[in-house]
Amino acid sequence: MLSAIEIERVCKDFGSVRALVDIDLEIRPGEFFALLGPNGAGKTTLINIIAGLTLANSGSVNVMGHNVITQYQQARRSLGVVPQELVYDPFFSVREVLLIQSGYYGIKHNAPWVDEIIERLDLTDKANANMRSLSGGMKRRVLVAQALVHKPPVIILDEPTAGVDVELRQTLWDFIRQLNQDGHTIVLTTHYLEEAETMCSRVAMLKAGRIIALDSTQNLIGKLAAVNSLRIRLSPDHLPLALQQLKQSYFNGLYELRIDNYAQIEFILSVLRSENTHIQEMYLQQPDLEDAFVNLIRNSGNKLQ
Ligand SMILES: Nc1ncnc2c1ncn2[C@@H]1O[C@H](COP(=O)(O)OP(=O)(O)OP(=O)(O)O)[C@@H](O)[C@H]1O
User: Fold this and answer.
1) Number of domains in the chain
2) Which residue's C-alpha comes closest to atom 14 of ligand 1?
């Protein structure tokens, strides 16, 4: 089956900085895929190589089967990129910007689609406003719209919700989810891990230019954050000796105990009962993508599959 994005053995150095090392990655059509990693991991560099904006030192990248260097035009038509930085032309209105962008792709008579994107991104009130006059969040919506004027099958969003308020974040995600349901492949980088967790079915984690984990979101959480923890407030405020080995932290009167399985909760309760210690508060912490991410970044000397 044709891949939406196929990356083979891509390396990129900036002088002595090894930004990407031997990246192999295949993203399938229709996927909602997250590219995660700490600052400087290489996410934007990889996106720029996919978009044909940065040249890799070695390796190859295809978008919908088109090589991003030798078949640049077809690859570019297959891809829409929403960049991280707010770049805009201050001299045009929102609608003009989108029609001009359509022209870059050689698309004439694009007004009906441009108007539809404007409406779906809640920009109708601002369609004739000058770009200069828009708030940061509105400008970001226009960036999303710009990436969509040529109806690309693959859309990459580089931190689309950075600095965006909660309401706009919701509008953006509803729209992007709809695009994915309509069949578009979506690749996303974000530092908001709960967004990746709710939206994306598969995740690649990058660190120092290497993919250190690649799996479905649920598997990754299961594999790397298998540890639950129990937070309890006790009276008297003393953790019995038999439970000391489970203690992970103590803060503000709350003990955090490591739980590897649910049977351990029964053990904890029985120890507390026998010691005549009462529970004043208790929370079970479920693992999430953030736990997986933190564990992985901490212990990423070795590559995980
Ligand atoms: N044009 C450039 N010249 C020199 N070094 C660069 C250049 N672009 C990126 N780098 C370096 O390459 C590495 C990867 O950077 P990149 O911007 O791809 O990371 P990132 O994962 O997107 O980070 P962030 O989450 O902060 O956006 C970093 O060490 C960065 O300093």
Assistant:
1) 2
2) 42
